[in-house]
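User:
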Amino acid sequence: MTTSQLVRLLIACAVLLVLAGLVYFMKRPAGSGGGGGSSKASRVFADLDVNEIQGLRIGTGEQQTEIVRKEDGVWAVSNRGDYPANDKEIKEFVVQLRNLEKQQSMSVPDAELGRFGLATSEDGENAEDGEDQPLQVELLKGDGSVLETFLLGGSRQSGDSKQGRYVRVGDGKVHLVSERFSGLKPEAGEWLSKDFFKVEKIKSVSLVDPNPAESWKVDRADANGEFSLADAKPDESADPAKTSSFKWMMGSPSFDDVLTAEDAKKINFGMGAYGAEITTFDGFKYVMSIAKVTPKAEEGAEEGAKAPDPEYYLKVDVTGSLPEKRTPGADEDEETAKALDEQWAAEQDTLKKKLAQEQKLSGRVYRIAEYTVSSLLKKRSDILKVDETSVPGVPGAGNPGNAPGAPGARPGALRPQVVTPPVEMKTPAAPGNPVAPKPAPKPEMNAPTKPEPTKPEPTKPEPTKPEPTKPEPTKPGMAKPKATPQNTEKGSTEKAHPKPEPEPEVAKPQMNKPESAPPNAAEGANGAAKGKSQPQNAGKGKDTGSPKPAKPAMPKEKPAPAPAEKPAESTSESELLKALEDLEETLEESKKP
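Assistant: Predicted structure:
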């Protein structure tokens, strides 16, 4: 044998020794003490063989829960009709017991047990007021005999936090351990397996309400579609926004407790109960009965105390109709068909196991929370689409008294729309004024050959806006008609010649004034009727041409007597036309050489 071969042999032996040691430590009995005496002595249950544990009995006082391991290895809750238990929690608890180590040990007299939360009712006066009863745990053998008994008391207070828990074992000693055992509770419902049915790919949902008028049924054509009302009346349809929750209904329901056979007989699933049926695209059918029970108030309860919340109970029967063979597609080749058949077969196996598991729930009565069935128990009126054209309160669509906010109005109704018809406002004519509008003469004044003088003519007799572009001799002629539309003599025209410059300014504002402010235009006409031709009048016309300077020009015209002159506005249309004709004649004469 060469040196290299010898080295390899030694390495192989070393590896085998290491593996053998690992196997030994893994397969050694649980109560063998671990590595040495000190390790065994540090454990609370040093001699406990966890493989002998075939049952648990946990409780405080009269409330107890018993869990046993059946022949098939499944843990079940005895006082819940052997309903399956949560075996995961049980296994974790057993492992904690095997590895439970002492942090502190002490001998405590019975009179001091209350300080550690370990005083039982048997201790009488030793139990302190307000202290919770310790949790008693019994480990049972397969024949029902007690393997080990211990008490779990309170926790050690360290500042604002609690650490570990006090344990009292059969030898009477009290040990402080690091485990809190917070999941260890005496209520049977805490130990039940919470595996429940799960509804998937819902095809149809129906509800039979205690009030027949509120019953309903919805269905859909495919797993991605919206639900429609199967039994809809001519004026009814389901609102997708209100039925969208049906797609995930009962997707992961839960329950709080399971009733015993004796307690289940006390629940009335007849009159006053709900009936529901859900079918799926996989061929499952869930038939449920739901009872709503309001507990009686406790004896001696104070007046006005809150009434107990209602409790809900559920029964479910699950059936299934699974196809035996897949229906192949039209264009499948041999290879594709084989792959699809294998996939379909695997899915069917999963569905068969699911069906078998859920059928075990049949015949049981479960206490559930309200939110578990809140979507299923909707009223028919809660899932209907509201038609805006038939909502009470909308004009022409019903009784306005049912509008939102009115007494007896249905909650959720649409707010009615109020339409106000257009109101036509007519301004009455001022007394004494002619019916015909003042701008009427405008087309007649546009008749002259010169458009410049005709623009101001409709409302004022001083339409001399274009005159600034003409020679000065014509401007005085324009001032003449403004001063005295009734006096059309040439002498008055020559009198106006000395001040040709103010007159074009007068013409401009008076042309704009009739369009923006008819009252000022009328006032200009009144001034023309008075026959006063002064340069001040021309200045006034200039001020009134711009909105802002109009106010300072008014004091020159003596605004005080102005209200008294307002009756002049009632001048008839014929008089205005006559004044305009005279003005036109004066203009023509002034142009002659």
